[in-house]
Amino acid sequence: MDFLERVVQLESATNIESWHSLIIETAHFMGFEQTLLGIIDSAQSPLHEAIILTSYSSIWRDRYDAHGYADIDPVVAHARSSVRHVIWHDDLYVTPRQKCFLEEAKSFNFKSGVTFPLHGPAAEFGMLSLQVDAENADAEKFIHSKLMEISFLKDSLFQKALGFIRNHKAEPDIMLSPREMEILKWSAIGKSTWEISKICNCSEANIDYHIKNIRSKFKVNTRRAAAVKAIALGLITV
């Protein structure tokens, strides 16, 4: 089973328990040792209300919560205020409390990894964190090699998580035009807007127009998330 097939399998999960197991399996397949997906219905809500799906040590999770580490963790602060991913570096930890927190985290093998912030259209907030056993330059090189896959994965996970949070029922039938299906299929295999415009013999503006309509139909924020949903629903194949 390749990466895309695993993402489609994640999209097709019918309950949060099986979905959680698939997230961990997919992260391992990608080469990451531990993973955490946290989602909350509003960035203003207290973090203890978040849905947390993780393979982190329960001892570490209990200590993290008991000591209120979310309030001093610079990765959490970054995720609240940015949409860009952050690779874990010692330089992020500046204050004495943050440095003590870092040393304790390292004792649980949290030395290297990456976190992707998740921000939804109705102020939903979350993070996808992936830990890797490599360190320093090797870890950073490995993470950079996986950024495209992680970006694809986090879009799918976030949309699925929002569905669980809102307790959505089955979505209504989604109707795509032949042109939309063609564009979505090329998007699913990683073609850029410029490349698709050349394949379809039309302007980039026309492609952007169709992609905007596609995202609207699937109620997602990115073309990747739309592609994953379309594959899971059997609307396109790659």
What's the count of strands? 5
List low-confidence stretches: none
Mean pLDDT: 88
Main sheet makeup: 5 strands, antiparallel
Distance between the termini: 14 Å
What's the arrangement of strands in the largest beta sheet?
A: 2-1-5-4-3
What CATH architecture of the largest domain do you see? 2-Layer Sandwich
Count of helical stretches: 10
Oligomer state of the chains in this structure: single chain
Judged by helices, strands and strand pairing, the structural class is: alpha+beta
Examine the coordinates and then state which fold CATH places here, giving the name of the CATH topology of the largest domain.
Answer: Beta-Lactamase
The CATH class of the largest domain is identified as Alpha Beta
